[in-house]
Structure formats: C-alpha cells, structure tokens
Amino acid sequence: MITANDAAKVFDTVLSIPGMNEPVKMDLKISRKNVLLLSHLIQDGLKIREGSSVLLESISEQGRTELESLSQECLQKAGLIELHEKLAGISASIKD
Questions:
Q1: Which of 32, 33, 71, 79 is the most buried (most CB within 10 A)?
Q2: What mean pLDDT value characterizes the chain?
Q3: What DSSP string describes 10-78?
Q4: How far apart are CA 70 and CA 88, in angstroms?
C-alpha cells in the first residue's frame, strides 16, 4: 500500500517535469453558471484540510496565488465578481 509520504513524492516528481511551469494559452467557452462553480471549487480546494489531498497539501504559495488569480480573472471576465461575493456572504451566514 502506498503511504501519504510516497504519494507526495510522486506528485512532487510529476509537478517537477520540465515544462510543467510553462504557461498554456486556453480559449474556453464556459457558461456563467460554471464560472461560478469553478471559482467556488478553486476557493474551496485551496482551504486545505489535513489529510484531504496529498496533492493539495503540497501546493506552493505561488501555486495558491496563481489559482486564486485564475478564479478572480474568470469571475471578472464573466462579470460575476459582485454576484460571487454576495453568494459567498450568504453561504458564510448559513455556516454560522
């Protein structure tokens, strides 16, 4: 059976492959609904929980920043920043 330490080494190896840090241009057509969902998934995924994912636990601060920027850029391009903030406020008030 593979241990968490072994899995972390595998993920680190894969992420260290030459070219993995090179930017990739992507032309996406995605619905506004899916932009909201994607942004939520990115932000929720960055709230790393102990033992939740070896890959997410090993993400660098730079990687976190890049994913947060991607999330914000998608919301901005879709014109959904204000709606996203209001929905996040509603969600936070439900959890309290």
A1: 71
A2: 86
A3: HHHHHHTSTTTTS---------HHHHHHHHHHHHHHTS--TTT-HHHHT--HHHHHHHHHHHHHHHHHH
A4: 17
